Each structure stands twice: as C-alpha cells, then as structure tokens.
Give the backbone structure.
Amino acid sequence: MKKFAIISTILILLAAALFGYSLYHYLDVTGALDKREAVATNTEATVAAAVNNAVKDDEQPTEEKTAAANTDGIFSAGTEKAAKYVESLSTEEMAGQLILGICADASTAAEEMNKYNLSGMLFESGNFTYMTPEQVTEAIKTAQAKTNIKPILAAQEEGGAYTTISDLTGFTEYDFNPLRSEFESGGLQAAEKAEDQKITMLKNVGFNLNLAPVVDVCSDGTQIMYSRSLSDDVEKVSAFAEYAAKFDQAKGVSVALKHFPGYGTVPDSANTGVGAIEDDRTAESIRSVDYQPFKAGAEAGAHFIMMSNLLVKSMDPTHIASLSPTLHNELRDNVGFTGLIITDVLDDADYSAYADGKKPVVQAVLAGNDVILVRDYATAHADIVAAVKSGAITEDQLKAACTRVIAYKYVAGIMS
C-alpha cells in the first residue's frame, strides 16, 4: 500500500510536470505567432500605405512633379542652363516664348519678335515676294541678329502647294513635288532624297525649323491629307518619320511631325468650313495605326510634334486635339514623346467652343502645348499674360513650358 502511494504520487507529479511544460510551450509558440502576425499585419499596412500613396501621387501629380517630369527627355541636357536663364525673365518675356508668330512682314520680323518676346516666327512665301535668294538669306540673318532672345526661324516646306521658299523665282533649282508624288515615283528613297534637299536649302538660307513632314497615314484621294501624305503603308510612313527626325535634325534643322493624332482616313467631306472637323474613328484604330509614325519619330528624337485641330470624338468629344489635355497625355504617355508640342494654327478659325470657356490660347497652354502657332500674336500674348496674372495659368506652369522651350534652343544650338 505504501509502495502504491509512492508510485501514485510520482505519476501525479510527472503528469503535472508534463502539463506545465505543454502549457509553457503552447504559450510561447502562441506568443511568437502573435508577434509574427502583428509584425506581418504592420508590414502589410505599411506596404499598403506606400502603394496607396504611390497611386495617389501618380493619379494627382503636383505641378512641381509634372514640371520635373516634362524636363526629362531629349532636351534634358539643356534644362539646368535653361532654368537659370528663365529665372531672369519677366512674366511677359516667358509668355512670349510660348508663341510662334506667323510673320506678316519680313522687314519688321525682328522688331515684332522683340516687342512681344516671341519664341520665333513662321515665315511664308508671301514674306519674300520678288526677293532673290541672297535677299531672303539677309532677311533671315537680320531677324536672328537683331532679336533679344535668339529665335526659332521656321518654314513650311512640304513640297507641292505647301512651301515657303522653294517656289520663289530665285529658287528654280528646287522644285519639290507633293510628298505622295515623290513616293509613288521613286519609293521611300525618292521621298528621302527630296527631304534632304529641302533641309539643305532651308539650312543654307538660315532657317532652323521646318513645320513638316506630314506623317498622316491616308489611303485614298477622298481623305483630307491624301496628297500631302506619303502612303497608306504605316511601316513606310514610320520609316520616313524616323528618317526625317534623324537626318534632318543632324543638319541643324528641327522637324515637326504632323498632325497628331493623325487625320488618317478622315474624309475631305468632313471639312465643312463650320466648326472643327470631326473624326468618327475609334480610339483603337487610331492608336493601332495612326500613332505608329509619331512613335517612330519620337524614338528617333523628333524635336516637335504638331497637334491637329481635329475633334476626335472617341477620345475627347469636347476639345479639338490642340486644346485637349487627354490627347496631350496620349502623346506624352502612350507615344512617349518628350520634345516640344506645338499647336496647328490656332486662330485660323473660331475654336472658342472647344476651350472650356477660356481663350483658346489659354486652354492651349493648360492642355500641355509648349508652343502656340498664331497669326495674331499680339492678342495671344496679351491673353496668356492676363491668364497668368489672374491665376488661370500658374507661374509654375508658365515657367515649366518656357524652360522646355529654352532648353530646346540650347540643345538645338539656337542659343549658346
């Protein structure tokens, strides 16, 4: 009996010891799990917060971030120098650098550019009537030498009916057919040879920008840009855009690929002369075809892309492309263009219905254009300055666009 009691006591103590050890182990493991779960929970919360903040930053960029992003790219080498230069400019001077005026009289071009601080001027054939090549060269040289801020001196040499100097009597050695005619007669090689000759001619006279070539992809004669375009073969049009960006600009003349997002198959019958030309194509068809030449040119370093004045209803039914934030974002984000965005002529028609109740030039700045092409540059300048003073355009927005223009001028060798 005594032996049984001793054994029982030993068993009870052993059981108690085993229970205690199990309880201790359970509590220790549970605590560790709780700690790991707490750490994991905290980590997940931290990651989630970071992701949310990143999404918010991406969806709602500050003006400072937007400006910084837009200074990256093909003109980044000139950005720091440009930013310092822009600090010395007044609001009026910065506003003028956003405007490329269409010249009324070559003899007063420098005076007008200085008066309104214009980034430069587009010259037309009528500016040089009866002038010899030497006189044209002297007029361009004078405009450059007498301008306070070194200017963009632009021509429009597409060939065919759209020329600045090649049809003048003094330039008989140059006779450029429409782009499509060059291509149909001799293929891509003939089109590229004509392009080389245009750029050599412009460079010799003193121009530093050609508002060309047209890279719209058109398939038949019923379409608006058919005669001015190269082909309906998107690969060949893309190759031509790449060639122009690489080889024209290497000779010292910038190109402006046009007209984004592309007139393409828009019929000529859509040009009624009343309001904007409306584009009924799907966004998918435009992105899959018409974007391709602009992408090729952008990747090759094209300095400018010109927006069209089309109303692309599938992508932005309330703004023409030149005034559309949506289409400017498409050009930056989808096409990947980091150069200067320029409007088509913004006062050749009344586009106020597409400007959100603002002056069209003001909406053009807000939409994302760096350069605005107008005939009435005096009014455009006054409208931009007034918008900055009222806060409709912020100082940061004005400064960012001006910095991009000046950075371009440094990189292109217009300013030094």
Observations:
- Residues 224 and 268 are 4 Å apart (CA to CA).
